[in-house]
Amino acid sequence: MASADLPAPPDEVIAALVTTKVERWWGSPETYRMTNWSADLRIGGGWNVSVETADQRLPASGKFLEIEMPRRIVQTRRYDWNHPALGRKETTVAYLLEPVGDGTRLTICHGGFAGFPDAAAEHADEWARVLGWLQRYLG
């Protein structure tokens, strides 16, 4: 679980998370970038993205399970390659958005790591970094 207060209204935060805007902010030259984002934003609709590193392009995908715009989106997530700590195990990510003053408190709950403690720890650290990128993009 990770949380941050963001300097934008919920509809802008949601757009940054589930549209091609993902490609503008998610990542850095030192780590990886998200590219080729596509989504069918409806319950049961799928999404796909490429995680692009300096020397690889790694696909990830999932389905939207719940959509309550602009308050909540729940989706599955799976790496379509053998992630070193998680393999191809499917997890679930919930984005919860709450208006706070002129901005939004975004809470991310990422579950489904039973039996994969190293992957859980890695993803917890990564969400903190991702929220930092999103704060800079929206700020």
Describe how the helices and strands are arranged:
Layout lengths: L1 E5 L3 H9 L3 H4 L7 E7 L6 E7 L4 E12 L3 E8 L11 E10 L2 E9 L5 H22 L1
Antiparallel strand pairs: 1-7, 2-3, 3-4, 4-5, 5-6, 6-7
What does this structure look like?
This is SRPBCC domain-containing protein. InterPro entries: ASHA1/2-like_C, START-like_dom_sf. Helix content is 25%, strand content 42%. It is of the alpha+beta class. The chain has a 7-stranded antiparallel β-sheet with strand order 1-7-6-5-4-3-2. Strand 4 (57-68) and strand 5 form a beta hairpin. The longest helix is centred in the last third of the chain and has 22 residues, at 117-138. It is globular, with a radius of gyration of 14 Å. The protein starts with a strand and ends with a helix. The mean pLDDT is 96.
Main traits of this protein?
3 helices; SRPBCC domain-containing protein; globular; 7 strands; alpha+beta; 7-stranded antiparallel β-sheet; ASHA1/2-like_C; Alpha-D-Glucose-1,6-Bisphosphate, Chain A, domain 4
How much helicity do the residues have?
A: 25-40%
Radius of gyration: 14 Å
β-strand number: 7
* Integer tally of domains: 1
Number of helices: 3
CATH class: Alpha Beta
CATH architecture descriptor name: 2-Layer Sandwich
Strand content is 35-45%
- Looking at CATH, the homologous superfamily is START domain
Q: Which structural class do the helices and strands define?
A: alpha+beta
Strand order of the largest sheet: 1-7-6-5-4-3-2
> From the structure provided, what is the oligomeric state, counting identical versus distinct chains?
single chain
Protein name: SRPBCC domain-containing protein
Family: Belongs to the AHA1 family.
InterPro entries: ASHA1/2-like_C, START-like_dom_sf
Domain Activator of Hsp90 ATPase homologue 1/2-like C-terminal: 8-139
